[in-house]
Amino acid sequence: MKKFINKPEEVVDEMIEGILLAHPNKIKSVREDDNKALVKKDSPSENKVAIVTGGGSGHLPLFLGYVGDGMLDGVAVGDIFASPSVQQILDVTKNVDGGKGVLYLYGNYGGDLMNFDMAAEMSKLENIEVESVVGTDDVASMPKGSEYNRRGVAGLFYLYKIAAAKAETGANLKQVKEITERVNHKVRTIGVAISPCVIPSVGKPNFEIEEESMEVGMGIHGEPGMYRKKLASADEVADSLTHLILEDLEVKENDDVSVLVNGLGSTPLQELYIVYRKIHKILSAKNINIYRSYVGEYATSMEMGGLSISIFKLDEELKKLLDEPFDTPFHKQFKEHPEE
After folding, report:
1. Most-buried pick from 4, 228, 236, 307 (CB within 10 A)?
2. Does the structural domain 187-333 have CATH classification 3.40.1080.10?
3. 243 flagged as catalytic
4. Which CATH superfamily is domain 10-186 in?
5. pLDDT tens digits, 29-59
6. Domains of the chain by residue range
7. Across residues 151-176, what is the average pLDDT?
8. Of 23, 221, 280, 337, which one is the catalytic site residue?
9. What is the distance between the alpha carbons of residues 30 and 92, in angstroms, rounded to a whole number?
10. 185 tagged catalytic
């Protein structure tokens, strides 16, 4: 294990401490004795539905990196690949509630489901109205027809973006939940891995893969994918992953979509753009319009080698909300459309 860390058991606390020190104008911790419950600097926002997420560390900028203006209000952070505690989620909830309720928005993983559900019940005892939406965008984790059992991966970015933008309009909790569920139905993601990551407390790779192989559909914790095959070219990877998504998501000629090409941790940005180039050609040939694109690291798995592709089918309301600006420690978006 070759990492720039101190003690393995202190990685998460020191990482969060560094982020708080680097971005004191954007986020803050709500407890002196536990820095894993974090909220937007100016929380709570009065008369606005608050959006709260959470999950295990090791996926930056997911989950912690999406707290900020025009995005999420709070996050509960677990240890590497581990769920946050019920108390941490509850602490965040109490600190972001501005009177219009709180939407829990997180990925479909067992520990997160259990702890967020328990926190929701405890929040009701505090007279805080809570609703939940669980992201299920990973087409590789379950077949078509079993979408609600799929994992939540990089496509969570789109759920965050639209939920937050809708909340900023003054919509009520029911309306924010409804549009977030609509986004969940319209986003699909699939990834491919070529090398593992090393959990600091374990000290060895979380899976093994042959030097000349890649695994299509591997999860962001190293969950098994759909199949393993010989390492392919960027164009071949883009072609196969894009078509797997289009077989699952109903996208027609002249539809508008957003595309996200996400690096899993150690894939160079130049390679992500080579893959995006091919996706653009594939969709253009089908007369599918890419309305807005995102290329970079949005949901990683520490130093895992690989990438994922997400496609989000848009309508007029979703396009307007997607264009709204945001500013977080890791990403920002201005109001102008990229083509302007």
Report:
1. 307
2. no
3. no
4. Dihydroxyacetone kinase; domain 1 (3.40.50.10440)
5. 999 999 999 999 999 999 999 999 999 999 9
6. 10-186, 187-333
7. 98
8. 221
9. 7
10. no
